[in-house]
């Protein structure tokens, strides 16, 4: 299976092509950024597709991150994914940023629980807690930092996500410290791709995953830009 993965949810603009038969990404590019995803994404995807040496029609699936994350960034990535899927007549799926942050840690088969956390500002985080074997302990939610810290009841965790250090700095001193702190600004595009390859299209719709109401408006007409890839 050839999977095009797209991530614009947080502080990066990234795309990659996964070849599941080869067991690796055959092309990828990630640019750190907080703004400017709309102008950057389509040229970046075009470079990745060219580097992979394939046509858009050869793709089997497109996946994009659905959030939590920047309202505008999510709209950019999801609009691109839907447009390319429409042009290529292929399915499109979505994966959450929290799951993408946690996936590589769960893949290491460690026993420690994993708290994936994203800064929601105003002393809040988006977070979820997963056991070392992948079972959900705390479902995704937006909550005060103190509530996220209460997940320490499951044991000393591996903290991952752009709010990992934020949690680590507030970790109660009377508790065992986190076993690891991995403050990534954005998910690894490879794991976005692998999750996108694994999910069922019927169970992973490509729509924004909001845990609270957005406070921004979507950029207009971005979907039209995806037509630049239709001829590839």
UniProtKB/TrEMBL annotation:
UniProt KW Manganese keyword: no
GO biological process, one term: tRNA threonylcarbamoyladenosine modification
Segments forming domain Gcp-like: 34-154
InterPro entries: ATPase_NBD, Gcp-like_dom, T6A_TsaB
Cellular component terms (Gene Ontology): cytosol
One annotated GO molecular function: transferase activity
KW Transferase (keyword) present: yes
Top-level taxon of the source organism: Bacteria
Keyword list, A-Z: Transferase
Name of the protein described by the UniProt record: tRNA (Adenosine(37)-N6)-threonylcarbamoyltransferase complex dimerization subunit type 1 TsaB
Organism: Nitrobacter vulgaris
Taxonomic classification: Bacteria, Pseudomonadati, Pseudomonadota, Alphaproteobacteria, Hyphomicrobiales
């Amino acid at each position: 299976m050839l999977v095009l993965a797209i991530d614009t949810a947080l502080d990066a603009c990234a795309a990659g092509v996964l070849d599941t038969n080869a067991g690796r990404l055959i092309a990828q590019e990630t640019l750190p950024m907080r703004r400017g995803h709309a102008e950057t994404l389509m040229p970046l995807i075009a470079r990745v597709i060219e580097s992979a040496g394939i046509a858009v029609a050869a793709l089997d699936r497109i996946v994009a991150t659905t959030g939590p994350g920047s309202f505008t960034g999510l709209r950019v990535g999801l609009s691109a994914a839907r447009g390319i899927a429409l042009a290529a007549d292929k399915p499109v799926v979505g994966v959450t940023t929290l799951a993408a942050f946690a996936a590589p840690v769960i893949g290491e088969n460690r026993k420690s629980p994993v708290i994936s956390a994203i800064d929601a500002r105003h002393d809040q985080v988006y977070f979820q807690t997963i056991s070392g074997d992948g079972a959900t302990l705390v479902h995704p939610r937006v909550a005060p930092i103190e509530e996220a810290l209460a997940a320490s009841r499951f044991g000393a965790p591996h903290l991952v996500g752009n709010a990992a250090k934020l949690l680590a700095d507030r970790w109660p001193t009377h508790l065992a410290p986190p076993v690891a702190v991995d403050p990534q600004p954005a998910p690894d595009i490879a794991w976005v791709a692998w999750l996108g390859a694994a999910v069922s299209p019927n169970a992973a719709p490509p729509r924004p995953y909001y845990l609270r109401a957005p406070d921004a408006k979507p950029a207009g007409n971005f979907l039209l830009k995806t037509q630049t890839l239709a001829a590839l």
